Structure formats: C-alpha cells, structure tokens
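Summary for the steering committee. One of the milestones for this cycle was to obtain a three-dimensional model of the protein with heme C bound, which we needed before selecting residues for the alanine scan. The sequence and ligand used are listed below.
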Amino acid sequence: MVNDHNPRQVSTNEEMLMRRLRITILVVLAMTCGTKTIGDNVGVDYPSDYRSWQHVKSMVIKPGHALEEMFGGIHHIYANSKAMSGLANGQYEDGAVFVFDLLDYDDSDNLIVETDRKRLDVMQYDSEEFSETGGWGYDTFVGNSTTQRLLQDVVVSCYTCHISAKASDYVFSHYRP
Ligand code: HEC
C-alpha cells in the first residue's frame, strides 16, 4: 500500500529544502558582504539603438524545453560594434554590449511568426564597474519598457549560468562571418 505520508520521505524532502535554503543564504551573504552589492547593476543602460546593431543569431525555444519558463519564445541576439569585434577576436573592451531580444511567437499553419516583445536581456562590458561578475553587467527590461527592470537578483539569475561560458568571456554566441 502506498503511504502518502511516509515519514522518511518527508524528512528527506525537508533535508533537501534546508540544504537548498542554507546554500541560498550563503550565496546571498557572500554577495552582500562587499562594499558594493554584487548584482547592483545600476550601470547597465537601456540599449536604445539595438535594432540597428549587427544581428548575431536567432533561436526558438518551444514549450517542453527545460528553459521554457524563462526563455520560451523566439530570441534574436544583437551586438554593438565593440561586442562584434570582441566576438571575432576574443577580447572585449569597455562599452561592448550584447542584447538578447526575447519575443513571443505565433505558431500556426506551419509558420512561426514573432509577436510582442517579452523581455530584453542586456550584457554590458566594463572591466572595472562589473569586475565582480567577470566584467559584464547584466539586466533585464520587461516587455517593451525602456525603464522597468526585472526585480530579481541578476547575479543568481544571469551570471551563475553565464559562468559556464567563462572560456569565451561569459558569452555563449559564436562569431559567424
Ligand atoms: C540557464 C542559463 C542562462 C541564464 C540563467 C541566462 N542566460 Fe543569457 N544566455 C544563455 C545562453 C545558452 C545563451 C545563448 C543563446 C543562443 O545561442 O541563442 C545566452 C545568451 C545571452 C546573451 C547574448 C550574448 C551571449 O552570451 O550569447 C545575453 C545578452 C544574455 N544571455 C543575457 C542574460 C541576462 C541579462 C540574464 C539574466 C536575466 C541571462 N542571460 C540569464 C544562458 C543563460
């Protein structure tokens, strides 16, 4: 017979929860101990002219994908000229900016057509200002807004995943001539 309230199961779940909580607390403490709060990316600007930058690539993340909740939709990646040079030669200079333009899409009649913008993710390079996050400042603008930033910790939400691309300066995209 299946026991819904198996005490061993409950205690394992609790242990897991406590472990996660402890890790979260440690991460938050580590991040807030410095003079400046890491993730306090006040310096990331809204990239007002990004639609005139170079298009790097696009991707569609469909329902069912592991990252659907955060990245579901069609995204286009753009780079300003400094980011484009960095992508080509592997060295970024201050002022390089990448944009991850996430849009909703309509999938019907075997056609995927982009619709409204869901979010705009930005990575801005400044080796001093953002030295604690590999030189890149991260931020997110909600919907079509040029001012409303997502109220979340960009270090946990962005940097911890971009660390896996550390070998290419935290940038996942590759140069395609
Ligand atoms: C789960 C991992 C993950 C998280 C979390 C994440 N990213 Fe990314 N990001 C990626 C991947 C993978 C790509 C490359 C996508 C592609 O190839 O189309 C990318 C691409 C980008 C790019 C284009 C430059 C590049 O690296 O190719 C920007 C800008 C960006 N992300 C910003 C952000 C911001 C801002 C956040 C936090 C709100 C964030 N990302 C959170 C995985 C992540």
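Key point for the committee: The radius of gyration is 19 Å.
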